[in-house]
Amino acid sequence: MSESPQALGAPVVRREGRDKVTGSARYAAEHTEPGCLYGWIVPAGVASGRVTAIRTADALAVPGVHTVLTHDNAPRLEEPDDPILAVLQNDRVPHRGWPVALVLAETPESARAGAEAVHVEYATTGHDVVLTADHPGLYTPEKANGGYPAVRERGDAGRAFDAAPVRIDATYTMRGLHNHPMEPHASTARWADGHLTVHDSSQGSSTVRDSLAQALGLDRDRVTVVSEHVGGGFGSKGTPRPQAVLASMAARHTGLTVQLALPRRYMASIVGHRAPTVQRVRLGADRDGVLSSVSHEIATHTSRVKEFVEQAAVPARIMYASPHSRTEHRVAALDVPSPSWMRAPGEASGMYALESAMDELACALGIDPVELRLRNEPQTEPDSGRPFSSRNLAACLSEGARRFGWYDRDPQPATREDGPWLLGTGVASATYPVLLSESAASAHAAPDGAFRIGVNATDIGTGARTVLAQIAASALGVPQERVTIDIGSSDLPAGSVAGGSSGTASWGTAVHKAATALTGRLAEHTGPLPPEGITVTADTAEEAAQESPYARHAFGAHFAEVAVDSLTGEVRVRRLLGVYAAGRILNSRTARSQFIGGMVMGLGMALTESSTMDPLFGDFTECDLASYHVPVCADVPDIQAHWIDEDDPHLNPMGSKGIGEIGIVGTAAAIGNAVRHATGARLRELPLTPDKLLPYLP
C-alpha cells in the first residue's frame, strides 16, 4: 500500500456518470420482468369525507386489467410507523388525492384506462384547506420537525422591542412548494419464497425496508429494498411513500411482480410538500444597528393524517447576537396532504424572512447590509450558549463582497437603469446545522490488492459513490481506483437517509472507521491474505449518540444582482454568487455542483415556484412542470460558488460539513433584497412574480 492515495478535495469525476449518460443505470421503474403487472392509483375526488361505494365492474372489463384493490379487498396492514402509509385500509378520505383504489393491469395504458373506469361515490363533509395568520385552528405544538422545541424564549423580547429606538415589524408569506424530481416516485415489488424485494426510488432504502416490514408484519430479514440509482429526491423521497406499500400489497395479493410509478400530476397530493407559512419577524436595535430583540413567529399548516411542523423559526435562534429573543411555531391541522421535508426544511423558509427583515433594518438605519450582519456576530450560539466549533460567516460575507464588487454599488434604491431594466443588488446570510446519524460500513481487502466498501448509502445525484471512495482510499492509503463501492441496498450495512445534508458525514464516518480498522488488521497480518480476504465492519452508534459540547453549523453568504423590467415586472437574475464555510470540501467538482444546484433552487423559490391551494376543490392547482415553474439554464446566466478553507476538528474524521442544502438557504432573500434595491418596493410574499411587482413600478 505504498501508492499515493487520491487526495480528499480533488475534483474526481463521478463514478456512475457514464452509466447515467449511456442509459445503463437502472432506476426503480426499470426492473420489470415478464408477467409484471402495472399499477395505477385512483385518487380521491373530494377533499374530506368517506367512500360510500366503489364500483369496479367497468374497470375489470377493460382489456388487460387484472385486479382492482380497494379498502374492501386489499391486504390488511399492521399499524405503520407513518400514518400516510395506511392506504386502502378504510373508507376515510383525509384530503383530495388520497388513494382510494389501485388498478393492476398488464400494461400501464390498461391500468390507466381501468383507473378512469372506476366509479367512486362519497359522503362529503365540509373542508378547510386555506391557512391564514389568524386561523382559529392554530395551536402551539410541543415540537417542530427535527425535535426542536416549538417555543424558545430568552429574556423579555416584547419589552426590549418596545424600548428599541429602531424597530422592524414585518410579516412574510410563502405559499406551498413542491419538489419535482425528474424521476417520479416509483416502486417495483416482487415476492419470492416468502421474501419481498422492492426497487424503490428512495433516499434511504434501510428506512423503507423497516417501514415495509412493520406495515406488512414481516421480519426485517425477509425484506430487501434497493435504491441503487435515484433521479433526485430533495426531501420528498426521504421517508417511505405510499407507492412502496401499495406495490408490495399488490404483489402479495396477486403473486406477481408489480410496478407502480406515480404520474407527476399525482405527486402534489401524495409525496409531501413544503407547507405555506406566515412569518412575523420583529427586530429591535439601537441606532448603531446592534440588536437588542429578535422575535420570529411562524404560522403554518399540517394535515389531519399526522402532525408535521416545519422548524422555520429555529435559524433565528442561532444567527445573531441579541440578549432578548422569542421564537414560536404554531400550526393548524387542515384537510390537506401531509407536508414533509423539502430542500433545507426550516432554514430555507425561515432564513428568507429573517434575512429580509435584516435588510429592512439596514435600510431603516442607513447601514450597509453586510456591515449590519457583521455588527451582530455572536461569540457563542445564542440559543444554547455553546461555543461554535467554527463560525466563518464573517469571512464568507467579506470574501463574497470582495468577489461580487459589493462596495461599488450605490446604496440608494431605484437609481441604476439599463434601458427599461431597473438594476439592484442584494445580500443574505445562510446557515445549516451539522448533523450526524448512525450508520455502519464494511471494508474488505482482497488478495489481489483490491478493496471493497459496503454501506447502504443512497446517491440521489450528489456523487456519494465517488466521495465515499475517496474517503476510503484516503483512510486505506491507496489510490481510489483500487476501491469499489457498494451502496443502495438494505442488505448492506445500514446507512442513514440521504437527507439533512448529513449523508456524507454519516456514511463517511462509518466508512473511515471501517477502512481505518482494516488498515490496522492488515498491518498486523503476516504473509499473503487468505483466499476469502479480510473483512472489517464498523458502526457509528457511539459517535452519533454523543452530544457535542460545540454548536456545529455551516455558514454562507449569498449575493445577487437582478434586473427588473419596468414595463412588464419581469425579474431576471443577472448574477448569483455564494461563498460558504462548510468544513473540508471532499470533492471540489461535486461540491461546486451541489452549491450551484442549491442556489438555483433558491432562485426558483424566489421567482417562479408556487403551489396554490384551490379553496373550492381542496387541491394544489400547479400539478405538473407546465404549471409549476422551475428555473432553467436561461434563468441562471452567471452563477458562482466559492468556499472558505475551514479547518474544524470537532466534526468527524473528514472534517466536513453538509453542503447539499446550504446553497438554497439565503438565495431567495438575497434576490428579494436585490429586487427592493432595484425598485424601491419591498415585497414580502414569494414568489416575486410580475403581477406583484407591476403596481409598484413607474
Number of strands: 27
Mean pLDDT: 97
Question: How much of the residues is beta strand, in percent?
Answer: 15-25%
Which regions have little confidence, pLDDT < 50, spanning 5+ residues? 1-5
Number of helices: 17
Structural class by SSE content: alpha+beta
Our measurement of the CA-to-CA distance between the termini, rounded to an integer number of angstroms, reads 70 Å
Descriptors for this entry?
single chain; 698 residues; alpha+beta; seven-stranded mixed sheet; six-stranded mixed sheet; disordered N terminus
Describe the fold and architecture.
The N terminus is likely disordered. Strands 3-5-1-14-11-12-13 form a seven-stranded mixed sheet, sandwiched between helices. Strands 9-17-16-15-10-27 form a six-stranded mixed sheet, sandwiched between helices. A five-stranded mixed sheet has the order 18-19-24-25-26, with helices on both faces. By secondary structure, it is of the alpha+beta class. It starts with 16 loop residues before the first helix and ends in a 5-residue tail after the last helix. It is 25% helix and 25% strand. It contains 17 helices and 27 strands. α14 crosses α16. A hairpin with a 5-residue loop joins β15 and β16.
